[in-house]
């Protein structure tokens, strides 16, 4: 597409995003596990280990479908989200939902 930036060394799935005219293109619905949570300087954010991809994805409180759920998140929780490319963080999660809390898995094993 003329006028679109598309580096030669960019992976093919990212090159497709560069061709889109939208500011942030959605890649696909993805699953992962909460790897890191932070509550610093009044902001709430974290990182997700993307299942089977060997990479991480950034998210913040506003990434969740229900932002109040951020305080319910814990390390190891399974989540589902749409992935976007972001100039600041690389990969960013949007429309994040909790699939299975680690606490729920542990409670099921005790029964």
Overview of the molecule:
It is a single chain. With 111 residues, the protein is mainly beta. It has a single domain, classed as OB fold (Dihydrolipoamide Acetyltransferase, E2P) (Beta Barrel). It contains two helices and five strands, in the order αβββββα. The chain has a five-stranded antiparallel sheet with strand order 3-2-1-4-5. β1 (26-40) and β2 (43-50) form a beta hairpin. The protein is globular, with a radius of gyration of 16 Å. The termini are far apart. The relative contact order is 0.19. Mean pLDDT is 76; it is low at 1-22.
Any idea what the CATH superfamily is called? Nucleic acid-binding proteins
> What's the domain count?
1
Helix content: 10-25%
Count of alpha and pi helical runs:
2
The count of strands amounts to 5
Radius of gyration: 16 Å
Shape, principal axes of CA atoms: globular
Would you tell me which CATH topology applies?
OB fold (Dihydrolipoamide Acetyltransferase, E2P)
Q: Report the CATH architecture.
A: Beta Barrel
Low-confidence regions: 1-22
Order of helices and strands: HEEEEEH
The biggest sheet, with number of strands, parallel, antiparallel or mixed sense and barrel status, is: 5 strands, antiparallel
How much strand content do the residues show? 35-45%
The residue-averaged pLDDT reads: 76
| Spatial gap, N to C terminus | 57 Å
Structural class: mainly beta
């Amino acid at each position: 597409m003329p006028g679109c930036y598309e580096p030669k060394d960019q992976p093919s799935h990212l090159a497709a995003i560069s061709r889109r005219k939208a500011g942030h293109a959605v890649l696909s619905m993805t699953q992962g596990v909460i790897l890191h949570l932070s509550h610093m300087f009044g902001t709430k954010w974290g990182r997700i280990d993307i299942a089977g991809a060997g990479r991480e994805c950034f998210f913040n409180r506003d990434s969740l479908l229900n932002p109040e759920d951020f305080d319910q998140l814990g390390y190891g929780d399974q989540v589902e989200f749409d992935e976007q490319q972001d100039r600041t963080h690389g990969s960013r999660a949007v429309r994040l939902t909790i699939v299975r809390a680690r606490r729920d898995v542990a409670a099921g094993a005790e029964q």
